[in-house]
Each structure stands twice: as C-alpha cells, then as structure tokens.
C-alpha cells in the first residue's frame, strides 16, 4: 500500500513524497486520512520561508500535525479501536498514518 506525505522542500515549494506502508506492530493502527488541520500561525510562515521560532528554517520539512481519519487496520494487541472507527491523531499531512492504538 502506498502513502503520500506533503513535504515543504523550500520556500513556496510543496511536494508529495511517496512511500510504501510498513507492516504495523501489534500495538499500532493504520488510519486513512479524511481531513487534516492546517496551522496558519506555524505552517504558513514555514511555507513562506520563515518560522515563528527560527528566522532561518530548515528544509525539507514535514507538514501538518493533526489528522482525522478512518481506521483501516489494527494490530493484534489493540482492543479498544476497530476497523471503521473514526479517530483524531497526530501524524501530519499524510494520506495514510500509522500510530499507536492508544486512547
């Protein structure tokens, strides 16, 4: 299964990076993204070539922080999340996220 991540390669340079999804651990879940939050206070300055905490930001850099999606796979030890559940998690602007299956 392929995953796409939105990367800021430089000021005003966005690119989708393609990766293969790794096998999940027993305590992880796979989430298919429905929507992702954008921070105009942090991400917009980074896209424009500045940073709220650093006047000389580094590139390339991952984007995003909070995502909403549907669980499409659960690890063997995950008991409180099921395939089909909708969850909020923190994996950035990615089409597929792999996160710990915790509350």
Automatic annotation (TrEMBL):
It comes from the Bacteria. Keywords: Oxidoreductase. GO terms for molecular function: oxidoreductase activity. The keyword Oxidoreductase applies. Pfam families: ADH_N (PF08240). SUPFAM superfamilies: GroES-like. Residues 26-88 form the Alcohol dehydrogenase-like N-terminal domain. This is Zn-dependent alcohol dehydrogenase.
């Amino acid at each position: 299964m392929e995953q796409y991540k939105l990367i800021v390669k430089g000021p005003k340079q966005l690119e989708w990076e393609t990766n293969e999804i790794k096998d999940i651990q027993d305590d992880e879940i796979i989430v298919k993204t429905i929507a992702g939050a954008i921070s105009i206070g942090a991400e917009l300055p980074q896209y424009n070539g500045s940073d709220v905490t650093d006047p000389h930001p580094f590139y390339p850099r991952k984007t995003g922080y909070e995502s909403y999606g549907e669980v499409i796979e659960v690890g063997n030890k995950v008991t409180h999340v099921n395939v089909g559940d909708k969850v909020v998690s923190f994996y950035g602007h990615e089409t597929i996220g792999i996160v710990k299956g915790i509350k």
